[in-house]
């Protein structure tokens, strides 16, 4: 057997190998993008839960802010009434 017979005896398998290679690269990049978006959303959700817990821990109500890179990034607010929920917002900061 010659190498042409091993390769598909007509040159068809070489383009198919390139096609499969590029399809796998595209699939890998799409999976990485989806994974990055999922991890970022999960991190934001965990940060928000932490901030709500911090705002709820304010003893007599009030407001507090968290800074990231020198800029206000989160605003916490808790009413002085016990029945009111703590509010956390990223946009208001």
Descriptive overview:
There is one protein chain. This protein has 93 residues and is of the alpha+beta class. The protein contains 2 helices and 3 strands; from the N terminus they run H-H-E-E-E. Strands 1-2-3 form a 3-stranded antiparallel sheet, with helices on one face. The longest helix is centred in the middle third of the chain and has 44 residues, at 13-56. The protein is rod-shaped, with a radius of gyration of 27 Å. The N and C termini lie far apart (72 Å). The chain crosses the membrane at residues 6-24. Keywords: Membrane, Transmembrane, Transmembrane helix.
Proportion in β-strands: 15-25%
Largest sheet, described in full?
3 strands, antiparallel
Query: Total helix count?
Result: 2
What is the typical, i.e. mean, pLDDT? 77
Unreliable residue stretches: none
Tell me the number of strands: 3
Nearest-angstrom radius of gyration? 27 Å
State the separation between the terminal residues, measured CA to CA: 72 Å
Helix content: 40-55%
Strand order of the largest sheet: 1-2-3
Series of H and E elements: HHEEE
> What would you call the structural class?
alpha+beta
Morphology call: rod-shaped
């Amino acid at each position: 057997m010659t190498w042409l017979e091993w390769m598909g005896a007509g040159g068809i398998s070489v383009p198919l190998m390139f096609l499969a290679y590029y399809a796998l690269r595209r699939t890998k990049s799409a999976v990485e993008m989806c994974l990055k978006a999922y991890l970022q959303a999960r991190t934001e959700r965990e940060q928000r839960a932490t901030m709500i817990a911090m705002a709820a821990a304010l003893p007599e109500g009030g407001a507090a802010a968290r800074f990231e890179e020198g800029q206000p990034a989160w605003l916490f607010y808790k009413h002085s009434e016990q029945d009111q929920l703590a509010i956390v917002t990223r946009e208001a900061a």
